């Protein structure tokens, strides 16, 4: 977000030196965070195969449990079909899934068919593809950080304000929504993937619902959607206004009132 | 032994919940109150000045509400489930009101019509208090919670008693807001704050008396307890009365911070009185602390986690008020 906005200002040649600094900071942050995110994701993913095997199998559209001595294949893309309990089609890498889960070419990975259909998550294609979108965006952002770091390093001697080429700056602008989309996709995987359980293996969602009439819950849901859509619209409007105006470099540091009032300020009693 | 330990834990959590409730009402109480008062103020400039003196603290104040919900959920899950289900309408109303109130602080400075957002701040505050009043009266009268296993009556909290409670909370929060403003601002706004504080003190006294007369209708066991220990509860009433008289006096003396502190002390006394009237119930007449509590292990674990965090929150909150101490004066 910070990097993308900085890149946008640099593309428009506004306050370039200032935003070169903030882009640099964003780059350092991304360089540290993105690879760490991949490592953490790997650890969490492995944990998932132990604690919530049905969710993990749904994420990878893995139907049949393979024997311990064989490798499970990893579906890069596929179309899982719950009705036929199989993938309609799949493009996969042999031994791939065992490599991911067991970090070895062979090894048992529990498949979806080990669970009766009532215990399998619904909407398996949704889980499968939102997970892939999340992972794809994660690697895209890591790649962006690495490429930018290399280019930056090569051009570090150039005092010129164009530290990054225009195409790379444009990539940063395109990347602004990526983090949000990846987060939302991850959320979908997490929540849809856990179904039909509210607490995995212990409490089914249908048993966890309140006794409230459906109309009451529906009303509040509609209101939440309406209000947050309205507020999102307003946020975008105001954000646009702020970005178009740009930062006021000559502004003094606020003394007390952070809200747009210039004629109040703090005076201590003494 | 095991039994005694768990009783101790349950009571400890009951006390913590009371403390968190006090912190919430004391802190968010004054900023909601300032919001309501901003609806009474006609001058647009002063309205925004009222908003400014909250801008540094209001969101930290609201964290206590989150902590209150979280603690109730963790320590007394049955009460949480029952209360939030029966009080669904007021709680949702409160959330929507808080959303608008929260964004108003941020959007106000970018909008071309800030007055609209100042208005959203005021009405959001008022609706939040109304919702809290309805929820409180629902809890105190217990009626709405008796049928939680069957079909829930969504609007059972709407009674004459609930209207009294709503009026009581609006007045009490306004008093907190007015005394806070009184110590925070200068000039004509301060004079207005003094008038608001004086009026709400008198109105609050009247409402508290009505509230006390109404109470027994809903919960006979409270009346029984009051008649059993008239001295104990008499002292509470007496102390609150003394606080209010001191408050009126210190407003007249133009003290800066003491009116607000006196309000907080009065609030604390009222809260302790309320809790000791209804103990061991968490939902008066319906559910005891014991019946609503989590397992001993959960309570113990929570005590280490949250018990460790609570002092930090108090210190941080205190430091925040120390940094933002002093007055807001108009700059000439």
What does this 3D model show about the protein?
- The complex is a heterodimer of chains A (270) and B (332).
- Chain A has nine helices and five strands.
- Chain A is mostly helical and 270 residues long.
- In chain A, strand 3 and strand 4 form a beta hairpin.
- In chain A, helix 5 runs antiparallel to helix 7.
- The C terminus of chain A is likely disordered.
- Chain B is an all-alpha fold and 332 residues long.
- Chain B has one domain.
- In chain B, helix 1 runs parallel beside helix 13 and helix 8 packs across helix 9.
- Chain B is globular and about 60 Å long.
- Classes of the chains: A mainly alpha (270), B mainly alpha (332).
- At the A-B interface, helix 9 and strand 5 of A face helix 2, helix 5 and strand 3 of B.
- Strand 5 of chain A pairs antiparallel with strand 3 of chain B, so a sheet runs across the interface.
């Amino acid at each position: 977000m910070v990097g993308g906005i900085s890149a946008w200002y640099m593309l428009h040649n506004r306050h370039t030196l200032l935003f070169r600094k903030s882009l640099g900071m964003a780059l350092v942050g991304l360089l540290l965070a993105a690879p760490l995110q991949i490592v953490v994701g790997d650890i969490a993913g492995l944990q998932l195969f132990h604690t919530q095997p049905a969710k993990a199998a749904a994420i990878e559209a893995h139907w049949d449990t393979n024997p311990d001595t064989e490798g499970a294949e990893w579906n890069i893309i596929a179309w899982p079909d719950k009705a036929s309990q199989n993938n309609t089609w799949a493009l996969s890498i042999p031994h791939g899934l065992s490599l991911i889960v067991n970090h070895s070419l062979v090894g048992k990975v529990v498949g979806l068919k080990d669970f009766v259909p009532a215990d399998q998550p619904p909407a398996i294609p949704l889980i499968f593809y939102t997970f892939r979108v999340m992972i794809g965006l994660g690697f895209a952002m890591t790649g962006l950080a690495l490429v930018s770091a290399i280019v930056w390093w090569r051009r570090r001697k150039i005092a010129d304000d164009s530290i990054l080429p225009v195409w790379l700056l444009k990539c940063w602008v395109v990347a602004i929504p990526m983090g949000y989309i990846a987060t939302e996709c991850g959320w979908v995987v997490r929540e849809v993937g856990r179904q039909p359980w509210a607490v995995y293996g212990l409490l089914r969602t249908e048993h966890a619902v309140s006794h409230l009439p459906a109309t009451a819950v529906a009303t509040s849901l509609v209101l939440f959607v309406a209000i947050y859509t309205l507020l999102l619209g307003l946020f975008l409007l105001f954000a646009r206004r702020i970005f178009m105006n740009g930062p006021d470099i000559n502004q003094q540091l606020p003394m007390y009132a952070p809200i747009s009032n210039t004629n109040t300020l703090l005076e201590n009693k003494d | 032994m095991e039994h005694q330990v768990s009783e101790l834990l349950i009571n400890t959590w009951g006390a913590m919940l009371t403390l968190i409730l006090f912190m919430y009402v004391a802190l968010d109480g004054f900023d909601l109150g300032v919001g309501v008062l901003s609806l009474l103020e006609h001058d647009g400039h002063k309205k925004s000045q009222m908003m400014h003196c909250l801008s540094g603290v209001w969101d930290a104040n609201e964290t206590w509400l989150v902590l209150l919900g979280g603690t109730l959920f963790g320590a007394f899950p049955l009460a949480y489930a029952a209360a939030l289900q029966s009080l669904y309408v007021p709680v949702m109303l409160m959330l929507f009101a808080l959303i608008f109130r929260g964004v108003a602080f941020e959007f106000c400075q970018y909008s071309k019509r800030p007055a609209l957002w100042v208005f959203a701040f005021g009405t959001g505050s008022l609706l939040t208090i109304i919702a809290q009043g309805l929820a409180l009266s629902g809890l105190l009268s217990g009626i709405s919670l008796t049928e939680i296993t069957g079909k829930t009556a969504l609007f059972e909290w709407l009674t004459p008693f609930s209207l009294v409670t709503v009026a009581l909370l609006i007045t009490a929060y306004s008093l907190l807001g007015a005394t806070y403003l009184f110590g925070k601002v200068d000039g004509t706004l301060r004079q207005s704050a003094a008038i608001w504080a004086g009026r709400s003190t008198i109105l609050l006294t009247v409402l508290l008396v009505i509230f006390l007369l109404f109470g027994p209708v809903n919960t006979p066991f409270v009346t029984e307890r009051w008649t059993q220990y008239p001295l104990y509860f008499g002292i509470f009433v007496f102390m609150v009365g003394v606080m209010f008289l001191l408050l009126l006096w210190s407003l007249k003396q133009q003290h800066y911070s003491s009116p607000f502190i006196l309000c907080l002390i009065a609030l604390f006394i009222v809260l302790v009185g309320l809790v000791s009237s209804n103990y061991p119930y968490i939902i008066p007449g319906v559910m005891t602390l014991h019946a609503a509590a989590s397992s001993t292990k959960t309570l113990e674990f929570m005590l280490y986690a949250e018990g460790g965090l609570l002092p930090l929150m108090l210190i941080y909150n205190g430091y925040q008020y120390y940094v933002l101490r002093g007055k807001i004066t108009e700059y000439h």
